[in-house]
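## retry 2 of 3
previous attempt timed out at serialization; input unchanged, resubmitting
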Amino acid sequence: MTEPEVPEPGETPAPTGTNAPSTPNATPPAPPARQPRNPLHGITLEAIVVALHDYYGWEGLAQRVALRCFESDPSVASSLKFLRKTPWAREKVESLYLFMLREHKRQGGGPG
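## retry succeeded, writing output
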């Protein structure tokens, strides 16, 4: 068996095990950046899909964005599953959401 390492006088022992504290000079993670001009910031994909469904319905949504997840046996869960895996489709849906917000505002629906 080997002897455990003994620190030199004035030296602090090296931490061992998984519960060892991180280095004292480590910087904490940066807080999330604020995006005041991004209308999608802080809005979940689920909230977007639900808002579009409430505004257009599944049929109207399928007419505006030709995706099978809106046409054949549509549901929020199946749409989310598809949109999370398909960036180009998600971009189309987010774009339609922004259009819906502008349209709603023009019709006197107020902000957002």
